[in-house]
Amino acid sequence: MTPFLQAAVTQMLPNAGDGENCAECGFAWDTPGTAAMGLVRDGPQRLGELLDRAEVSAPITGGPWSSSAYVWHVGDVTRAWSERLHSLSVDPDAAWAGFDPDELAQARHYEALPRATAPWALERAVEALDLSLGSLDTDTPFEHPEWGRGTVADALRWLAHEVVHHELDIRRAGSPA
Ligand SMILES: [Zn+2]
């Protein structure tokens, strides 16, 4: 794992363990960049279908977010990364700014945002990500302000994990504990 991916997993996923796969959802951290992007592209449909079936008011086991909030979260994170990868293309030396996803959730009021629009917003974000990839090679390096050096493939792995892991969160939310 690169410093970026290692730091991201350690800081953001305290229950993910330190193995080759996320201990919770099973995502393989060495998933190839192109396969990871495939998972990201499938995200709007997979999460949208789950959202259709999930209980609207189902509580999240062990977490404060609703199923709809998770989809808004994946959309916002994906859009933020599309902007970062675009900047990597047009201004590779530009510094990035990190953000706290919980603070963003509060500022955006995920719980009050329209549930039916969450998959649509995620789909638009995936389109932006596709555009931002442009001619970038998956080996292209970047420097994350908090997590250090990574590659475009790492960014795609991180976003693919968002889809897979939060899919699990939504399934957990929609079924009795
Ligand atoms: Zn996971």
Structure description:
This protein is mainly alpha-helical. It has a single domain, classed as dinb family like domain (Four Helix Bundle (Hemerythrin (Met), subunit A)). The protein contains six helices and two strands. Strand 1 and strand 2 form a beta hairpin. Helix 2 packs antiparallel against helix 5, helix 3 runs parallel beside helix 5 and helix 3 runs antiparallel to helix 6. The mean pLDDT is 91. It binds zinc ion. The site of zinc ion has 7 residues, from helix 6.
So what's the CATH class? Mainly Alpha
CATH superfamily: dinb family like domain
Strand/helix succession? HHHHHEEH
Tell me the overall shape. globular
- Largest sheet data: 2 strands, antiparallel
User: Architecture, CATH level 2?
Assistant: Up-down Bundle
Q: Could you tell me the mean pLDDT? A: 91
In short:
This protein has six helices and two strands, in the order αααααββα. By secondary structure, the protein is mostly helical. The protein has one domain (about 5-175): dinb family like domain (Four Helix Bundle (Hemerythrin (Met), subunit A), Up-down Bundle).
